[in-house]
Amino acid sequence: MQARKTFAALAVAAVAATGAATAGTANAAQARDSHHSGGQDTSGHNAGHNSGGHGRATAFDRTATYPVFQNRPTGEDPATPTVAEISTVSPDGRTLIYTDALSRRIGFLDISDADKPRGLGTLSLKELGDAEDEPTSVSVVGSYVLVVVNTSDSYTNPSGRMDVIRLRDRERVASFDLGGQPDSIAISHDKRYAAIAIENERDEEATPPGGEEGDLPQAPAGFVQIVDLTGKTPAQWRTRAVPLTKRDGRALPALVDAGLAEPTDPEPEYVSINSRDQLAVTLQENNGVALIDLRTGRIDDVFSAGTASVSGIDTENDGKIDLTGSIKDVPREPDAIGWIDNRYLATANEGDWHGGTRGWTVFDSKTGKVAWDAGNTFERLAVRYGFFNEDRADKKGTEPEGLAIAEFDGTRYAFVGSERSNFIAVYDMTRPTKPVFKQVLPATNGPEGLLPIPSRDLFAVSSEEDDASVNVRASVSLYRLGKGTPAFPTIVSADDKSGAPIGWGALGALSAVPGDKHLLYTATDAAYSPTRILTIDPRKAPAVINKELTVRDADGNPVGYDAEGIYARPQGGFWLGVEGATGAENKLVRLDDKGVTQQVVTLPADVAAGLDKWGFEGVTATTDHGREVVWAALQREVTGDGTGIVRLARYDVTTRLWSFYGYQLGSTTTPGDWIGLSEITVVGDKLAVIERDKLNGPAAKIKRVYTVEMPTVAARRGPVKVLPKTLAYDVLPDLRATNGWTQEKLEGLTVAGDGEVYAISDNDALKDATGETVFLHLGSSKKVFGKQ
Questions:
Q1: Which residues, 6 or more positions from 113, have their beta carbon under 8 angstroms from its beta carbon?
Q2: Domains of the chain
Q3: In 334-453, which ranges are E strands?
Q4: For residue 206, what are the CA distances in angstroms to 154, 218, 381, 606?
């Protein structure tokens, strides 16, 4: 267990480094804040602070991932899109309820066993009203589920209702007209009030007089609806509207004085209630926060969320994770909001049309001033943990959208979710003005609903992205707070020379480092440019990427190769197996120690002509008596070789001659699936390959390591000779053991200098993938491959 404790030390070091790098950024951002100034604590994370003062290490560990398409109505096509957006839980913490706006229904899960959630079916809103009714949020009060429903027929004629559903039998017992299009709902601590943001959202394609497309104002204005949950039955509940404009549509002085973008169109988004029955509501497009007394319906205060200037982030969508960019005086435009205590509240600053500052902020509700801001630290977490979605760099980056605050076992935590980078960052909020980063939780695509369940030490995340055509499915993920080290992460990056985390992702290749017992090399593929060779130290838990080497062409210029395989040569330099977009573009590339291209070897023309886009997927080599032989695996069949027969390519460096052996793939009956090779490495007198299917999640079946005897001579011409294969190791159970979305692209395999075997999954740079990377220590070579 001692080795596992290095994660805590690494996390502390990482946060300390990030805090040091961004302290100036955060201070500068708050000094320039357009609405707040002076006297606030602007320090970064307090790296030395331990969780809640308990003196024991605790962390959230993922227990299960439930794809909600498995909870669809009987007879519905499994490929039909179905999502999980906002979730709530029954008072006993055993039934989770989620909204599926896409399918116009709410779903129910039995989470009594957090390791094995079970679908309990769905309730269609068609049964309660109209087939086009859309649930936007959900919450539970006692034995009732409160579902807020958008029934609008247009942006200019918004409408909505709140249905009260008896949890026991799912019968509607009451319904309330909300007078507009609802977004979020919150319940007060004493269960006396429900508060609903009536957004009446803008039409992004409409152009108001004198404005541009999507601009404000767009009538009718939004407001807040309070529901008094008093009386013996829900039928006795009453609603009270809190207008955020005057009756004639003019702006309220409080909103004008706060300097909001367009006070006649407040656009309320997200609500949270403290223990004093004070409501905080974000006015996202207006970059503001309103505070309302629920007892009286009076507006206590309105303040601007201000602007921030953030440096040390990636602002260019150019295929390179480059943390030297900056944004200046950008509105925060907060989405989710949560009270930390009765004074301080936090916002996730996703942004909307004009803003988004890639982090989150703590405000002092008494003054409306910034008490703490994440600066660049939230985005840098995404980079360090391999989750950064570079495709969004020129927009809103990580887009922190969801936020939840809850107390577990005496410690108050903040959970901040990244919509575009598929993770949740967890912070200790014991000191509200000095959040302490604790860990990152991996999620499936589009984490939207963050649901703490403190009574059972559980935390749930509902994710809304669903596209069966690429095996991205919406899910509910569960995590349990406990002692010990969580299974995630398995690999992270250290800081580079500038103090920024080394950017990484799409790691589909592995090689041992010659002359070192432990270290490994990996390489980034075509998802990033230029190509980089990264050094991994697997002795730490998680493993650490601690060095990077940029690959260059023969003229010394940075170059982008689709490096699907890497082999570090004992005599110096590297071989890369480069996959091409066409058969002719596949090549072996030899680099020197500095990463500069020394030699390019293309496939024979007849072989290249028989390939589609699936080419080289791994490379390895042997050197006997000074004679170097390079082996490469082709992922799919060459035309004419026969069904399921792929080639193992042998290149004799001395004679410069290619020859080819055959490998018989397994078969699949799943529509749209195929089997291929994704790695090759030398193990004694054998070649080990990864054979895998194209499936992920619960559908994944084949993630295996096989061996074949390594021929010592070139293959004869003619039909390729198929080498008998032997199953060495089934990796699927190891991938399933993460309790997450089983990763598709098991692509890297190597044996380190000490004989330990490692494998890694390619996270596809978050394109049609969750973005999670799984780095596996499979055991000793003797255990995996037997005696050599």
A1: none
A2: 504-785 (2.115.10)
A3: 337-339, 344-348, 360-364, 369-373, 400-408, 411-418, 423-428, 436-442, 447-453
A4: 12, 8, 37, 57
Mean pLDDT by runs of 10 across the 788 residues of the chain is: 36 40 35 32 29 61 98 95 97 98 97 98 91 95 98 97 97 98 98 98 95 95 98 96 97 97 97 98 98 98 98 97 97 98 98 95 98 98 98 95 97 97 98 98 97 98 95 97 95 96 97 98 96 97 97 98 97 97 95 98 95 93 93 95 96 97 96 96 97 96 98 93 98 98 98 98 96 98 89
Query: First-to-last CA distance in the chain?
Result: 30
CB-neighbour burial class of residue 391 (10 A; exposed 0-12, middle 13-18, buried 19+): middle
pTM above 0.90, yes or no: yes
The rounded distance, in Å, linking the Cα atoms of 647 and 720 is: 8
CA dist., res. 531 & res. 512, Å (int): 18
CB under 8 A, 24+ apart: contacts of 589-596: 589/561, 591/551, 594/549, 594/552, 595/533, 595/549, 595/550, 595/551, 595/552, 596/552, 596/553, 596/554, 596/556
Tell me whether the omega of the peptide bond preceding residue 208 falls within 30 degrees of 0, making it cis.
no
Dist. CA 413–CA 399, nearest whole Å? 20
Tokens standing for 277?
Answer: 């029955």
Name all contacts of 31-35 with Cβ < 8 Å and 24+ positions apart.
32/307, 32/308, 32/309, 32/329, 33/306, 33/307, 33/308, 33/370, 34/259, 34/304, 34/306, 34/307, 34/329, 35/258, 35/259, 35/303, 35/304, 35/305, 35/306, 35/307, 35/368
| Alpha-carbon span 625 to 415, nearest angstrom | 58
Which strands sit side by side in the sheet containing 721-722, from one edge to the other?
616-624, 627-634, 645-652, 657-664, 721-722
Residue 11's SS3 state is: helix
- Cis status of the peptide bond prior to 530, with omega within 30 of 0: yes
Q: Which residues pair with 751 in a beta bridge?
A: 757
Which structure tokens are listed for 340? 């930390």
